[in-house]
Design brief:
Length: 194
């Protein structure tokens, strides 16, 4: 992985996003990769589920990343467990603690922290609660986007997502009323009609 970071520098790449296909921090060398990318002048962003982060990883993220997105998709432990397919009742709280730790560590850095919310029918009535939670955790941004044509794993073979668009739009609008200079709400809705 370190060779990749060096190749990116040689190729003149300015930035890179570490995400997709699984949790980046399953690889124990992730913090080392991020530090090397930073040393090589690459701006980086990471999307993580936040469950495996150590204090060292959190410090590395704060010091090296331009942004970090936490894939949360819920406002409550129960919904989080159902959506993620896990049985650990304490994991949601642990990830929220990790978010707060990163927010604190990022206070004097360029790192922006986001609460990411992939909208599916099972979490569509928790949007506003998730926005409030995200704000209370101190993140800079709340990002909502619906699962859809661009995520075939979740949507293959499904014809009706049973979205309550009126409720979704109302919750996003209420959430946007919580915006401040330091907290923004982004609700992507155009993907409901791909």
């Amino acid at each position: 992985m370190l060779r990749l970071a060096d190749f990116l520098k040689e190729w003149g790449v300015n930035s890179a996003c570490v995400a997709g296909g699984g949790e980046p921090f399953m690889n124990k060398g992730m913090s080392t990769l991020l530090r090397r990318m930073h040393e090589n002048g690459l701006e980086s962003g990471v999307i993580t589920n936040g469950s495996l982060l150590t204090n060292k990883d959190i410090s590395t993220l704060a010091e090296t990343c331009l942004w970090v997105g936490f894939s949360m998709d819920a406002a409550t432990p129960r919904t989080y467990m159902n959506i993620k397919g896990i049985k650990n009742e304490t994991l949601f709280g642990k990830v929220c603690e990790n978010i707060m730790k990163l927010v604190r560590e990022s206070k004097d850095t360029k790192c922006s922290v986001a609460y990411k919310y992939l909208l599916i029918p099972e979490n569509q009535y928790e949007i506003y609660a998730a926005v409030k939670l995200a704000k209370s955790l101190g993140v800079r941004d709340f990002h909502l986007r619906p699962v859809g044509w661009d995520n075939l794993t979740k949507t293959k073979g499904k014809e009706d997502y049973s979205y309550d668009l009126e409720s979704i739009n109302e919750q996003i609008a209420r959430g946007q009323k919580l915006e401040t200079e330091n907290f923004r709400v982004f609700g992507i809705r155009h993907k409901f009609n791909p």
